[in-house]
Amino acid sequence: MGERTLELEVLRYNPETDSEPRFQRYTVTCREEWVVLDALNHIKETIDPTLTYRWSCHMAVCGSCGMMINKEPKLACKAFIRSYKGVVRVEPLAHFPIERDLVTVIDDFMDKLKRVRPYLIPKQVKAVADGEYLQTPAELNKFKQYSMCINCMLCYAACPEYGLIPKYVGPAAIALAHRYNQDSRDGGRDQRQQEIAATEGAWECSFVGACSEVCPEHVDPAGAIQQVKIKSTVDWYTEHLMPWLKK
Amino acid sequence: MAEEMSRKPYVREMTSEWIFRHPRYVRYMTREFSCLFIGAWTLMLVCALARLSEGPEAWAAFLAGLKSPLIVAFHVVALAFAVYHSVTWFNLTPKALPLQLGEQFVPDGVISGAHFGAWAVLSIAILYLAGAF
Q: What dotted CATH number matches B16-129?
């Protein structure tokens, strides 16, 4: 295996001593097959133990190591250094406040996620003795891609609407709400609509489409948001023009 | 809580730099910008209707005005933006209007292709009604 000397510029911020973040350059001898997370781990172990960042699984499952790599939101565990030339700039995820170094404050996303009720609210609650909630493969395919979301927040870092209007519920939360709305076993749509059909919900989206482009799990939040807009519009017309159709 | 009090999160201000962070944002802003040209052309169409209602002389004067190089240049630019606007939006239709037949979804190209097809048919129909053929 080959080796390569990599120049990494990492945005550092220590809330106890710094008034603003600054870049710090590290020179790391990397192996060709390394990802950016390996280089960060190498820095922490051998050069600078104070470097702070989140990570856990190292296999694009946990969604912890999202960061801006050369200004693009990426999972550090999926960003192979062989894809980069020259100095690699690593910054915390855009649009989130910085807690320390590459660690961001994610309370806002966690709150929004909770508000959209991303869990099954059964149409009819069944006793365990009454058996499973059955579903056909077609019914499963209707929402399956959205269930791949790992809450890594890359879509929020890619979305200029979220950066400009922090109240916006945002791509992942709306996609997850849509995932449960599309589920044949679910009956909680009315509860979720209050959040996702509001001005700060799907209607804040102007269809930049960046969320779907950066998603490491190939979820399509942009698609989910447009479908929420269409369904909410149909709801409005049904309610105002054909009120007798409303259940 | 003592732990809470020691926190001092740093909020980065968002500048217009984001537009140039990645080509996708430039493409998006170009699509948004295209509305200005389409809006301006629509205003010109309203003016045309007003001139038409004023009689043959006003209409002839309007048609003569359209031949000015500046107006011709505007039409060329507005047409380019209108095509860009339509193509980029039609390409996004599979995201908004997915169609599931049985277990599988209809491929994206079929949905956007149907929109492009309808666009072509309607354009030809309008040109036919306008006596272009």
A: 1.20.1300.10
